[in-house]
Specification:
The chain has a 7-stranded mixed beta sheet, with helices on both faces. The protein has a 3-stranded antiparallel beta sheet with strand order 13-14-16. It is an alpha/beta fold. Helices cover about 35% and strands about 15% of the residues. The protein has 2 domains: about 220 residues, Aspartate Aminotransferase, domain 2, CATH 3.40.640.10; about 120 residues, Aspartate Aminotransferase, domain 1 (Alpha-Beta Complex). Strand 3, helix 4 and strand 4 form a beta-alpha-beta unit. The model has no long low-confidence stretch (mean pLDDT about 95). Helix 2 packs parallel to helix 7. The protein binds pyridoxal-5'-phosphate.
Amino acid sequence: MKKKPIFVTEPYLPPLNDFIPYLEEIWSNKILTNGGPFHQKLEEALCEYLDVEHISLFTNGTLALVTALQALRITGEVITTPYSFVATAHALLWNGVKPIFVDIDPSTLNLDPQKIEAAITPQTTAILPVHCYGRPCDVDEIQKIADKYNLRVIYDAAHAFGVRCHCGSVLKHGDLSVLSFHATKVFNTFEGGAIVCPDKKTKDRIDHLKNFGFVDEVTVVAPGINGKMSEFNAALGLLQLKSIDEVIEFRGRIDSLYRAHLSNVPGVTCLIKSDAISPNYSYFPILISEEYPLTRDQLFLKLRATEIYARRYFYPLISEFSMYRGLPSARPGNLSSATTASNSVICLPIYPNLPDEQVLRICDVIKSIN
Ligand SMILES: *Cc1c(COP(=O)(O)O)cnc(C)c1O
């Protein structure tokens, strides 16, 4: 029997028929974008589901990140992590801001708060941490530093949809949090994103910035971008939201299966469990050490050979790409934990419809030494 290829993720899609009524509504009211009824309904539904005050929907997470920085008028230098998807740092370059890379904590793979202060200069205006794999950053420590130096904090929360930590939604921390609803994320609208903000005034400014800077028909207040989510994507979001709890529950089951079957494999470490009250199991990273008979890349290729398409998130580090590697903070010596993690990580497949047998097959490939 031919094995079906297994990708690192596969989007969850409700039955097509369930989407037809939404399409009929769009076709009948003929509102396609510009903050139509589905856009408004999804903003309200997400505020409720995520337990946040205000949300502004976007075409994608990257434009949301770019706009979040513009909304707070961030300039100069911003402290961020090299261990993320490249869009995190690109958003800084799009704002003419210089990224300052700071190393990660080797146990959580999030920005290490202990290392932040040493990187602060008179030009520093903000910190842009990532809740990597949906695991909450040390939000209290980061806020303490931000308060001490009068810095803004913008969280790249692209992995952290629905995650709750000790004080409720993790998205309430910092000045702004940015979500991605890309097809590969826990909650998707095919393409999409959002900014979570604490007050109406900030939401209004963000709503203007995502619509070219228009405040009314004849007034433009800033060189805003076109970042508006369409009615089609917003309708998809409303449909997807109905099954999100099941989706996260199913991911949790796979997370436990991997942990049970990989916990005693020499040289293989599952990243420590999230300390979130409700995690979202958005990725399943393992770290391969020298004790393992193969190198990380050999294991990666071995998995490929049996059509298991795991991914090396995050390799290379952002700081290794050509537009960043000349920065003084990009030196590997400055980023030793990030460099080690990047050279040893593999993210294993995790998604709602991944059968248990396949999870066990993946574990068997990792455990078999030949
Ligand atoms: C997916 C992702 C983004 C970008 O989001 P898009 O919606 O694809 O533009 C940004 N940061 C991180 C950490 C991501 O994983």
